Amino acid sequence: MKKKNIKIIKFQKKEEYSYKRKVIITDLVFDTSIGIHDFEKKKEQQIKFNIEIDINPFLKAAENDLESIVNYENIISKVKSITHKRHYNLLETLAEDIFDKLFLAKNITKIKLRIEKPEIIENTSSVGVEITKKKK
Fold first, then answer.
1. Rounded CA gap, 89 and 36, in Å?
2. Sheet containing strand 126-134, strands side by side
3. Considering only CA atoms, which of 34, 36, 52, 54 is closest in space to residue 44?
4. CATH says 21-134 is which class?
5. Among residues 54, 55, 42, 46, which one has the least CA distance to residue 115?
6. What is the pLDDT of residues 4-62, one digit of tens each?
7. Calpha distance 135→72 (Å, rounded)
8. pTM for the complete prediction?
9. Following DSSP, what letter does each residue of 63-93 receive, concatenated?
10. 76 and 70 in contact (C-beta within 8 Å)?
């Protein structure tokens, strides 16, 4: 008699909900040394940040454990620290330094970062860059 091959199929528990979680920081303003022009190198100017951070949807927040979340106060502190470390010629290089620092947190999966220089160009309220970066 010939043996039959039997496959065992394991079913995974289906989650009841699908989550997309974000940390949002709007209109964060710091004075920093940034720009390619001589007058920008001599005096700090206001820079405005808008940040959206997608986090691991499986991260479960624990009421009394700040380590169980992506804490927006820590994000703000890191951005502030980066903007005060040195002069940046370009908003893009400042953005890359921010990405590098924030992506050290393993629960951050995607960052959308908008950096603006308010009132630096005549007839505009601001100019800037918006960059989205995602972990693969």
1. 5
2. 21-32, 45-55, 108-118, 126-134
3. 34
4. alpha beta
5. 46
6. 777 777 777 666 777 788 999 999 999 999 999 999 999 999 999 999 999 988 877 77
7. 19
8. 0.83
9. TTBGGGS--HHHHHHHHHHHHTTS-BS-HHH
10. no
Backbone angles phi, psi at 67, to 5 degrees: -70, -15
End-to-end Cα spacing for the chain: 51
Q: What are the sequence ranges of the domains in the chain?
A: 21-134
DSSP state of 12: P
Please state, in angstroms and rounded to a whole number, the distance separating the CA atoms of residues 46 and 79. Answer: 14
Q: What is the pLDDT of residues 58-74, one digit of tens each?
A: 877 777 777 778 899 99
Length of the chain: 136
Greater pLDDT, 58 or 124: 124
pLDDT for the residue numbered 14: 66
Distance CA 133, CA 136 (A): 10
Number of Cβ within a 10 Å radius of residue 90:
12
